[in-house]
Amino acid sequence: MLKMAVLVSGGGTNLQAILDAIDSGTITNAEVSVVISNNPGAYALKRAEKKGIDAVCVSPKNFESREAFNEALLARIQSYGVDLVVLAGCLVVIPKIMVDAYPNRIINVHPALIPSFCGTGYYGLKVHEAALARGVKVTGATVHFVDAGTDTGPIILQKAVEVCEGDTPEILQRRVMEQAEWIIMPKAIDLIANGRVSVENGQVHIK
Fold it and tell me: Which of 54, 113, 133, 136 fits a disulfide with 140 by CB distance 3.0 to 4.6 angstroms?
């Protein structure tokens, strides 16, 4: 059984998609051991509590330095003995010590088709604002492993979503979540949980 820590900063809609997928059997051989947020007011923590999952807040505001926060966050994750760290709307920059501790065992969902509209500064609505400003006809979402860069790790899954006339960033964000993020994140977890994902020379292979 794959044990997961899910890191979130806000409402936790991607977390809910994961929990629903476990309940429905879309994700097999995996469980969420803990939900951790940097934001004490994150609704995602309430979602975890409703499912009887440990809901933990590790806030950088409670530490003297970023380094101390990073060490505390890693220690809390490691205390649960998890196999996979899932970033589901997590706005914390993942430190090198965590990447080193979990090589190719941290995954993130990004609301665009990497390498488009990704990297430093591209998060949340900013991604969709940029996509609309560029006038792309197709966008989507990407699930990837996390490495030392920003959105530069090996790509696991991608799914395209059509951009429609009259879209606002908010409308597009919702469509990308419903038609891509909530589908490919659970699928990626299921593939990993069942030993179907490997990484060779920086590329993901699915068997």
Answer: 113
